[in-house]
Design a protein that fits this description.
alpha+beta; globular; single chain; 13 helices; about 350 residues; Aminopeptidase; 9 strands; two-stranded antiparallel sheet; 7-stranded mixed beta sheet
């Protein structure tokens, strides 16, 4: 099948509930929980009328937002997705939207490629604010609650300034998290403890442990990979810093040749498994020496919180590591999750 085997059409009002139900079959639980009942939707179907996928969208003046876009599993790789992405963006332009945007889950590389083919680029909040102003950001936040809840990156029809903004973004993230950690420490103890400064090297040491695990998994899979820094890491860093531990800025090693195939699932699964295993092993070791030095204490705290994060977002809630392990090997995922929970309870 090719793109010519499908056609796009506006969804009928009486299809809203069925389209929402179909979307929940293709999304994670958390995405589905926030998935809206579509007021406007575009459907893609085969020439003989078999439903293949849909895109929900919102039009607010000159702003067009792609809320949810999905293709049924049996039609992935057939050209249906290519037609769907192209059609929904052309439709928004036809409706007078000069500013089109969407949020995409961080590890959904095929979706990023589809948007890029239609002149939509990954951008930072900073570049989006410069191009569209505060009003554009408000429309994005209010228009895409599902993906904001899951962790994502912004794509928009403006040229990306992410490369130039990245060093400043990192510096601002580190400075802001450190200030919050110091403030929380002062409010909880009534004094400033210089040991809080060790949270910075501890965070990067924790990050190194995670990356070492991901590197091991990628090397075992013998497939190429690239380095990606999640834009959603800032919010997580700030939240976790409330407990006195600086959460490491999230970096992942993702497959370079990303596809909807077993090789990609194996590479993601191995990367996620070894990342969690290395994190758990380092946490166990540091538990017995966390009182020897402030950095050991903060590093143990960071790793423990990472294990809690992995345990709480168990599949089908997870959109990152645990889901990758589950798709690769369900038995391996269950074993890892059991070990993870046991270590969290024992080594808190």
């Amino acid at each position: 099948m090719t793109e010519a085997s499908f056609r796009a059409r506006p969804a009928r009002p009486d299809e809203a509930q069925s389209l929402r139900s179909a979307s929940r079959e293709e999304l994670t639980f958390l995405e589905g929980l926030f998935s809206p009942k579509p007021k406007n939707a575009l459907a893609v179907e085969t020439l003989d009328g078999c439903f293949a996928g849909s895109a929900f969208y919102t039009v607010k003046g000159q702003y067009g937002i792609v809320d949810i876009i999905y293709v049924l599993r049996q039609y992935k790789g057939t050209g249906a997705a290519r037609l769907l992405y192209k059609s929904v963006i052309e439709l928004l332009k036809a409706k007078g939207c000069t500013r089109i945007m969407a949020l995409v889950i961080d590890d959904n590389a095929p979706s990023f490629k589809s948007f890029e083919r239609n002149d939509m680029h990954t951008v930072t909040m900073t570049s989006l604010a410069k191009a569209w102003g505060f009003k554009g950001l408000v429309h994005l936040v209010l228009g895409t609650p599902a993906l904001l809840a899951c962790g994502c990156r912004i794509v928009a029809n403006i040229e990306s300034a992410e490369g130039k903004a990245a060093p400043l973004f990192w510096a601002a993230k580190i400075a802001l998290c450190l200030m919050v950690s110091i403030l929380v420490s002062f409010l909880s103890t009534g004094s400033l403890d210089s040991s809080i400064l060790w949270s910075i090297p501890a965070a990067f040491a924790s990050l190194s442990v995670m990356l070492a695990g991901q590197l091991a998994g990628n090397l075992i899979s013998k497939r190429p990979f690239y380095v990606h820094q999640d834009s959603a890491g800032l919010l997580t860093s700030l939240l976790v810093s409330q407990s006195g531990a600086l959460f490491p800025p999230m970096i992942h090693l993702y497959p370079k040749d990303w596809g909807n195939d077993d090789q990609t699932r194996r590479q993601l699964g191995l990367s996620a498994f070894f990342s969690q295993f290395f994190t758990m092993a380092a946490m166990v070791i540091l538990f017995y020496c966390k009182d020897a030095h402030p950095m050991a204490y903060f590093m143990h705290r960071c790793l423990w919180l990472l294990c809690v994060y992995d345990a709480l977002f168990f599949y089908p809630f997870s959109v990152f590591g645990t889901k990758a392990i589950w798709n690769y090997s369900k038995a391996l995922c269950l074993i890892m999750e059991f070990m993870n929970l046991a270590s969290i309870i024992r080594l808190h």
